[in-house]
Amino acid sequence: MVQHRALVLGSTFATKMGDSATSTTLSSAATALAATMSQFWDKTRNLILYEYGPVLNGKYSFKDTAVILGVLHGYAGDGLYSYTDPKVLSSALEIATSFLIYNISSVTHDAQGLILGIPIGRYPEDVYNGTGTQANGGNPWYLCTAAMAELFYRASASYTAIGKISVTGNSLPFWRYFSPQANVQAGKSYPANDVQFFNMVNSLNGWGDAFMRTINNYTPPNGRMPEEINRNTGAPQGARDLTW
Q1: Beta pairing, strands 228-229 & 47-48
Q2: Domains of the chain: total
Q3: Scanning 54, 75, 153, 185, which has the fewest C-beta atoms within 10 Å of its C-beta?
């Protein structure tokens, strides 16, 4: 995704600089790369894979927050795995809910009674605990949780700009989980003047806020955020000040 975006931006820049030959070369490479991206979609898992091929490093779930980061940093505005792509939304659901394995995910409200989002890690099979490795040692990361929040905010902004939300079979599970009150159906589109559109966008913003509240809830009083949040206690751990 990031390579594709770099080629698209490079082609645009070359055109501005009057170098049509380089622009054509980069644009052709971007088109060729985009044509391979469908290989990452696994329709049986309703998931964009972080890689295609054999399992890497024991990631048997094939779920990895790298996919979310790829969309955030690599979307080139051309419709290829956009923030509102049904395949991206279904992947976000699969990835986010895979981290309900963390014990602290059962903490659903902060001290003020406000809803917390799911604490997001790198991938469910992660064994790195911030200083070494151990069985079930992976933890939520501040950065990964923020990435999920950003995706929800970007999706909300995109739908608001479009003025319509179209629900597909792929995206329906996402909406049923994150916006059950909207009671949407696959194969239908909901315009901006529809109460269901309002509920869906409101849910995206609300969940974005909830993910950010999770970060806030586990940030030490001095504001210094390390690498990870202990999956059992909520204590900060890992590389000091990595996040901030």
Answers
A1: unpaired
A2: 2
A3: 54
